[in-house]
Amino acid sequence: MKFIGELILVLLATSLLGQLFARFNMPAVIGQLLSGILLGPAILNWVHPNDIISIFSEFGVILLMFLAGLESDLTLLKKYFKLSFTVAAVGVILPVIFMGVASLAFGMKFLEALFIGIVFAATSVSISVVVLQEAGKLHTRPGSAILGAAVVDDILAVIVLSLFTTFSHEGGKSGLTNNFFLNLLIEAIYFVGVWLIFKFIAPYFMKAAEKIDVNYSVVIASLVLALSMAWAAELVGLSDVVGAFFGGLAIRQTPQFKEVNSSVSAIGYSIFIPVFFVDIGLSMTFASLIKDLGFIIVMTVLAIFSKFWAGKYSSEIFGFTKNEGNIVGAGMISRGEVALIVAQIGISNHLFPEDIYSSLILVIILTTVISPFVLNYFIRSKSSQPDTVTK
């Protein structure tokens, strides 16, 4: 009953603060994060981390990454593959280098610095999509580049995270055996299995689910597939979010994906995903905020410019105007949900010092808040060139 009381507080706080931020055209996720900070030990001390919250939070992560896979449009990616891949690849490499080197300068070990770079490799374009839609720019060349690059970015971020947890002895993921190379082979076999599910198994599995005379049989089947892939990923030494993401990507290619997306969104965003964001806030403190102020400022600046430069100059290679390049760069700045998930995995597996966790979350929040303002500035720029969709 104590947890039910805490859950009531969590759902009320996330709904109200999420709505407050949405009214000011800011990401609702920031309000949900602040709910955890407000309710947790940092301020009111009404809700504390516990095993039940951790279970709800873990399921929320899995659903969030499953939905990220469901929302990844591979058709758009195929249409603009070279452009999308270049923008995304450079947008992963630059933050890993910039943030990694800066972390080393702040006295962290090599693997810790590398993981912090990986945290900021991901991009969340949900807020950028809203800004582009409101400005009527979503289906222009910059809008198409941002959407395509976001798909590649998520895939690359998941793969980089998989490789890191495989090669890092500090990751706490030893795999099925004590033999590193055998574990590597098993993980390679896992990805072959993912491809088989993606190409052959998922379409037939979902078609068979439609014939079952049970309410929401298609949704249940999709969750069985996603949870199985998440469980298998964890079993072979990867992160469960890897399996959940590719599970969503597989379902996206089936005719049933819209029904699944609608129902799983309702399940996830009504209870489990808000608890995940609150759980992050519950872990935050402000004890070392003043001490880490220099770290926060440097990391925020590097996080913004590494993605901005990657998007701007990569798109200009493909003939975009300077202002179109600026729009692409600004659209890639926001880190959002995926970065929060990677950071949560990192703190759970002791991949970076615990005392900088709150500072990292704050940097992620700052990039997410700053991004729409920068994007709006370049969209309204008078130097904007004709907005045609890429051929």
Which structural traits does this protein have?
391 residues; single chain; 74% helix; mainly alpha; 16 helices
Average pLDDT value? 86
Number of DSSP strand runs: 0
Determine the N-to-C terminus distance. 58 Å
For the biggest sheet, the summary is:
none
Strand content: under 5%
Please describe what this structure looks like:
It is a single chain. By secondary structure, this protein is an all-alpha fold. The protein has helices spanning 2-23, 28-39, 51-70, 74-79, 81-105, 110-119, 126-134, 141-167, 180-210, 217-235, 240-252, 257-282, 293-317, 322-331, 336-348, 357-379. α1 packs across α2 (28-39), α6 (110-119) packs antiparallel against α15 (336-348) and α15 packs antiparallel against α16. The chain is globular, with a radius of gyration of 20 Å. The termini are far apart.
